[in-house]
Design a protein that fits this description.
By secondary structure, this protein is α+β, with helices and mostly antiparallel strands. The model has no long low-confidence stretch (mean pLDDT 89). The longest helix has 11 residues, at 31-41. The protein contains 1 helix and 3 strands, in the order E-H-E-E. The chain has a single domain, classed as Histidine kinase-like ATPase, C-terminal domain (Heat Shock Protein 90). It has a 3-stranded antiparallel sheet with strand order 1-3-2, covered by helices on one side.
Length: 73
């Protein structure tokens, strides 16, 4: 699980079902729709699980075997 979060205003509960929809953010491209589509090609899923007023929290689930660690660093 890869977690990306911030301490901003978060996403209102009633808007969460729409954030991955096409056109959710007007004139800003495909946004999270494109992110979810690209990730799904490799079996990775993304969801927003933050709290409104406390920040956004994106949880990216990477299936076992679909990642590797670079031992050079």
């Amino acid at each position: 699980m890869l977690i990306i979060e911030n301490s901003g205003i978060g996403i209102a509960a009633e808007k969460k079902p729409m954030i991955f929809d096409r056109g959710y953010v007007k004139n800003k491209g495909l946004g999270l729709l494109l992110v979810r589509g690209v990730l799904s090609i490799t079996g990775i899923s993304i969801k927003e699980n933050g709290e409104s007023g406390k920040g956004a929290r994106f949880e990216i689930a990477v299936p076992t075997g679909n990642y590797r660690f670079d031992k050079k660093t």
